[in-house]
Amino acid sequence: MIKSLAQEWLAQKLMTTDDGLVVGVSGGADSMAMLHVLLTANRTLDWNLKLHVAHLDHGLRGEESRADAAFVQAVADGLDLPCTVEAEDVRALAESQGIGLEDASRRARYSFVHRVCLNTGIGKVAVAHHADDNAETILHRVLRGTGLRGLAGIPYSRELAGGSSIRLVRPLLSWTRAQILEYLADEGIAYREDRTNADNVHTRNRIRNVLIPELERDFNPQVRDALLRLGEQADWLVEFLGETVQRTFESLIISRTDQVLTLNAEALARKSRIVQTELIRLAYVSFRLSEQDLGFANLVAALELVADPNSGKQIMLPKGMIVEKRYGQITFSLPSDEPRESIAEEIAIHVPGRTILPVRRIAIECAIRSVGPTEIACLRQSPGTMEECVDCDAVRLPLVVRARRSGERFFPLGAPGSKKLSDFLTDQKVTPAERKRVAVLCDHLGPIWVIGYRIDDRVKLTELTRRVLHLRATPLEP
């Protein structure tokens, strides 16, 4: 059974046989099964997974929460695995951000595992969603009124955050809850029970504990399988649409800034309605807005605007986005009256720490860690366009972010010599409008990272590097 599951991980490209994984362990049945399955792959299949256990105490169940944390720490110690345990007042976080407890818990968990990844240099996070979770998610979305993408259910893998090279993987997504419990019983593995799972106050628990059992009893004993088959077919279609629509979207762009996107409305109107819908959704989320806010009525209103032959009409989408059709063009724009700092202003960057840049709708995160000679070769491969690793001892603090300056030069990594920033951006095919908004991270000596494009050669990693400064730019949540 473990061999078959491991083959699935390789087929789905969730991990390689010697990957590093931050393993999210709550102490419950699902995460304990996942942890031991990964360890079994090492033991019986000659894999060499490097596991780091991570547990966040949400502080919602008092002594029970603290006992869960102690249990996970003891399990990790007993297995001789490195472990990070932290606590956060999720209730206070929900109140301060004006969001629900479930949403606050999710945000806290993902922020926590992201920190663990940065501190350990591990690029993947494993979480224990399973097939029953997937079926419940699909049904929940149907009840709320989902679109095609919502029917696709939970993916095996995704980016932990937009633009990040850190991946979230789900090794047990093909297993049912019954298979997990059977595995735990057969192996004699202990786990913690969360009494809130039996509380039917939350919608998700009512779906799991009441609605699905009733559907199985009165309508279809195989309702979970039916939901999963629906999700799988929706996923195939979404994948096909995604590849087609992305290419089309790029061809429709007339101009783009951080607040305004203009598309060719006439070309857009010639597409099928399903493609039009996906293009509008893509335009919306390209501003780092959540597609969950975009309802079917919003999409229909946008479709009607595209089809309307008249010019000068506009509609409003969630988060204040204005969509206007004028002279063969359709423009998506964000509110322009929100307070913003000057583009040219220098913003001091916390090292280590997180610094918010509202004007560019990003946050800069910096983490320092020690490395050995064997890690350098791997780290030299650029983590991603919005992440870089540089030699910490080659950086001359303090760090600031600012706009580029007239005539400014830097030494792009991999280039034969220095180059004007303006010429470099031209070579990268950055439009004049976008160049004005490019963010440059500088130390005391000048630019070290043209964010999203290239680092300076003087801060690159070498065989002599012993401290790495991990830089990451993440979009601000709407």
Secondary structure: elements and pairs:
Layout: H1 2-11, E1 20-24, H2 29-44, E2 50-57, H3 63-78, E3 83-87, H4 90-97, H5 101-120, E4 124-126, H6 131-144, H7 148-151, E5 157-159, E6 167-169, H8 177-187, H9 203-218, H10 223-252, E7 253-256, E8 260-264, H11 265-269, H12 273-285, H13 296-307, E9 314-317, E10 321-326, E11 329-333, E12 347-349, E13 353-357, E14 362-370, H14 373-380, E15 387-391, E16 399-402, E17 409-410, E18 419-420, H15 421-427, H16 432-435, E19 440-443, E20 446-450, E21 454-455, E22 467-475
Parallel strand pairs: 1-2, 1-4, 2-3, 4-6
Antiparallel strand pairs: 5-6, 7-8, 8-11, 9-10, 10-11, 12-16, 13-14, 14-22, 15-22, 16-19, 17-18, 19-20, 20-21
What report would you give on this structure?
There is one protein chain. With 478 residues, the protein is α+β, with helices and mostly antiparallel strands. It has three domains: 2-225, Rossmann fold (3-Layer(aba) Sandwich); 257-333, Uridine Diphospho-n-acetylenolpyruvylglucosamine Reductase, domain 3; 347-475, Phenylalanyl-tRNA Synthetase, Chain B, domain 3. 41% of the residues lie in helices and 21% in strands. It has 16 helices and 22 strands. It has a six-stranded mixed beta sheet with strand order 3-2-1-4-6-5, with helices on both faces. Strands 7-8-11-10-9 form a five-stranded antiparallel beta sheet. The protein starts with a helix and ends with a strand. Residues 337-344 have low confidence and may be disordered.
